[in-house]
Amino acid sequence: MAIANMTDMLIKARAGKYAVGAFNILDYNSFKAVVDAASELNAPVIVQISVKTVKLWGYDAIVSWYRQLSENVKVPVAMHLDHCKDIDVIENCIKAGWTSVMIDASSKPFEENMKLTRQVVEMATSANVSVEAELGEIGGVEDDIVVAEENAHLADPAKAELFCQEIDLQCFAPAIGTAHGVYKGEPKIDFDRLKTIAGRTPVPLALHGGTGLSSDVFRKCISLGCAKVNISTQLKHAFINEFVKYHQAHPNEYEPVKVLAAQYEQLKQEVKENIEFFGSSGKGE
Ligand SMILES: [Zn+2]
């Protein structure tokens, strides 16, 4: 039984200075690629679902994939709702069988963010569901949430400390300069801010906007306390590019099963590369 929430895997990751990969999936095939990659590398893993994907397939279908794919693997697999502003969707996910949720009230004033996050924690804790919250605003586009560069702002360390002290979070996402989507130019990561925040709270930190960061940036962020690294854009690109590539290489073949198999292999390989890189390979026990 490998249905798990994020709590233990992230505590161990932060203490061991590695990170658990959190990979956004789109369908059964990509879900299977992520779980199989983690299982083959004996790594804990987080499967992330965006609100858009929840709305496409429905709660019960996604939970049925989760149970079917994760129940019989040895490694812990958490299923996490990515960036969600809607309390009703969060509540439905908790009831349906998600083991982890993210409340993203980062666009609200600080007090309001705390209030909404606290409300979600109360709802989640009784169901043994872990919670991630965000402070500051991470730039770029994630799902239907668009944060223009001029509106993105970094997390204030004093507020971060208070936020984590007041609310019992399993994961905290402070905005430190990373962005969702594809980076235009060199990302400006505020490592000092990350270091200060990590020094003020033991809560495992999440690094959003992982796609396109250099290996040095990853290494540094993980060594400074990032225990969860989100990878979404990279897998979206692999998902579509592999389809196109297969069809271009075999223009007269119309066997969808072969295309899906190629897509699965590509996604699995990219997930594995990330897991190896984050240092969570072999940490599945
Ligand atoms: Zn994010």
Quick rundown:
The chain has 285 residues and is an alpha/beta fold.
Short descriptors:
285 residues; alpha/beta; 11 strands; binds zinc ion
Topology:
Layout: E1 3-4, H1 7-16, E2 20-24, H2 28-40, E3 45-49, H3 51-57, H4 59-70, E4 77-84, H5 87-96, E5 100-103, H6 110-125, E6 130-135, E7 140-142, E8 145-147, H7 157-166, E9 171-174, H8 191-200, E10 205-207, H9 215-223, E11 226-231, H10 233-249, H11 256-278
Parallel strand pairs: 1-4, 2-3, 2-11, 3-4, 4-5, 5-6, 6-9, 10-11
Antiparallel strand pairs: 7-8
Bound molecules: zinc ion.
Structure characterization notes:
This protein is of the alpha/beta class and 285 residues long. It has a single domain, classed as TIM Barrel (Alpha-Beta Barrel). It is 48% helix and 17% strand. It contains 11 helices and 11 strands. The strands form 2 sheets. Strands 1, 2, 3, 4, 5, 6, 9, 10 and 11 form a 9-stranded parallel beta sheet that branches. The longest helix has 23 residues. It starts with a strand and ends in a 7-residue tail after the last helix. The model has no long low-confidence stretch (mean pLDDT 95). The protein binds zinc ion. Zinc ion binds next to loops.
